[in-house]
Amino acid sequence: MNIAYIYDAIYPYINGGVEKRIHELAVRLVRRNHQVHLYGMQFWEGEATFKKDGVWYHGISPAKPFYTKGRRSIVHPFSFAYMLGRHLRGRDHDLIDCQNFPYIPSFAARWATRKTPLIITWHEVWGDYWYQYLGSVGIIGKYLEKRTISLADRMIAVSPMTILALREHAASEEIACIPNGIDIRAIEAIEPSGKKSDIIFAGRFIKEKHPDLILRAMAILREEKSDLKAVFIGDGPERERLMDETKRLGLEDNVSFTGFLPSWEAVIGMMKSSSVFVLPSTREGFGIAALEAMACGLPVVTIDHPQNAVSDLIRGGCGISCPLDPGALAGAIRTALVNAHILGQAGREKARTYDWEKIVDTIEEIYQKTIEEVKRA
What whole-number distance in Å separates Cα of residue 302 and Cα of residue 319? Predict the structure, then answer.
């Protein structure tokens, strides 16, 4: 098969869960003798198109900031979609897998390649959250989200939570649940880093992930454990506010910010040197960082929220979910630290069921089935 993946950000130039999923699928599909192309914004220097590890990378538009005043830009999806439509015209792909967000590229892909099977992979469904995110203007985002559902020949969702949300608008549609995965062997081979911590956070510093809540929980826990250590891996629009909050709470000696680390292996090494992974997010379509932490033997502490798929991921004694409150989070972290071995063992066993090779087996079948169905239609 000749497969195209569409997402404005491409790993490793941008490091997030969606980008990592596409990368892991792409390199494994190439090993199975498929041809794979990635279309995104050009976040690298040099040629716009190049081939690496058998995968074709296409930087089809200049890199632009994702966030404006702490929110995802509504300008760059249009410019990216325009260039995408131009690049896809005349391309001989057997199938296109377009990520649902930020919606506009899905319309461009459908318009430019009407006869090519189009799969839209859904990582999140925002629904009424659009009004919270943009106020009354959120009606536009909600409308585009709903219209995007009608574009695909088939939909894939990364979690049962996402399927339930899609069912509100597409009750009769067949939706395949294909989760994110992890490379178990690679994780097990990585040595712990030399920098130990009690708490670790890894992800973008955005409001929906509530990294500031960890700081406020630490201020409570420090009364019991003065040498409590936390490491924050990542960056984002909330960075300055986090730095200010760290100073305000007097946690400079307890907290370190690493920025985005130079490699995935470095992140895993830091996880293995920590005791508890904390992700106080109220909006996670899957939570691949949490799954990687589970594979490292860390209990996961997260927020019990209907738009947070991590709270489903840790069911079965792999971690603790709690309300969005610093006191509740402090209590959950305290319990996780005490029971780290038991919770971590359960998480490690569950993580083994998410091996990438098994997931690629499934997605390969779905792709082939979709191509055959579109040909027959």
Answer: 8
